[in-house]
Amino acid sequence: MAFVGEAARPRYQRRFDELAERIGDFEKVNVPLPGIVGDAEREVLINQLIDSERRNHHFERMLTRSLPSDSIDPHLTHFDPLKAAIYHWNAGNHDEAYWLVFQFVHFGKHPTAGWRFVREVYGRLDTHPIWSWDEISANTPEFRLWLGESQAQLLRRDQPRGFGNHRKYASLSHESPRGTASVFESYIEWVMAYGSHAKLFGVYSHLPSPEEKFDAIYKAMRVVMDFGRIARFDYLMTLSRLKFLDVAPGCAYLQNATGPLQGARLLVSGPQSNTSARDLERVLREFSSVVGVSFDVIEDAVCNWQKSPGTFKKFVL
Known about the structure:
Blueprint: H1 10-29, H2 39-64, H3 81-90, H4 94-107, H5 116-122, H6 133-138, H7 140-149, H8 151-154, H9 180-192, H10 197-202, H11 210-220, H12 229-241, H13 259-269, H14 277-291, H15 295-307
């Protein structure tokens, strides 16, 4: 068994061997994992774990590198909401940074259209003022009107369009109760009930651990329209990876999940399993401890692994 891809980098093969050994240790001491009885399935799972870890490393690299100026301006084609969020955070404009992360999760990155939706909505279709946090929080009803007037331009077919993979069923509608206008309004109402993101998240500062803070904010975020289990998980994990908040998941949050739940069931109980999310979480908690992988990595890896358990495929958000 071996690491798939970038084989010239020995550290990935070393990590592969380490994970393989630790998974073996887990199975000896705890329970066998019927989903990876076959060598191919085991190899693919380990490769997906490494790929998920590498996505986390991507965030770490972004935090240490200089930011190209054309990645910060939504009127430019190379705009990147995460890089823009880092820029604003470093400049002390924390509300704007949180707002950009929210849009990063809401729109996602389309496989071919890239950041087009977030660039054009946040950038107000190349006009001023852009829909910055200060602008939209002070003029929220106007945003709904603008979104309605801009539908034809935003949905034009002269170039690729769409939401990212995790948000492929989301809507750009200004009328739908689950469309972008309603999503933005509910998020702004949630934050502005406290006056700012800092004050909102400060409510949870008394909780003693990053895991308890993550769970409390995850539950509080239910008020945000169309932000279900995966969107809330992605939002908080992005804030954690960017070091905007000291939060971390204390479990894989399988309740109400689809792909991660199916992947966990396949791994722990085999095909056609209906093992409860609660029972799976107990196994994964021990798996995380013994194997040495965080819950966000497990959640991402088993979701991608169950899509193609016998052949490694690289997936993006």
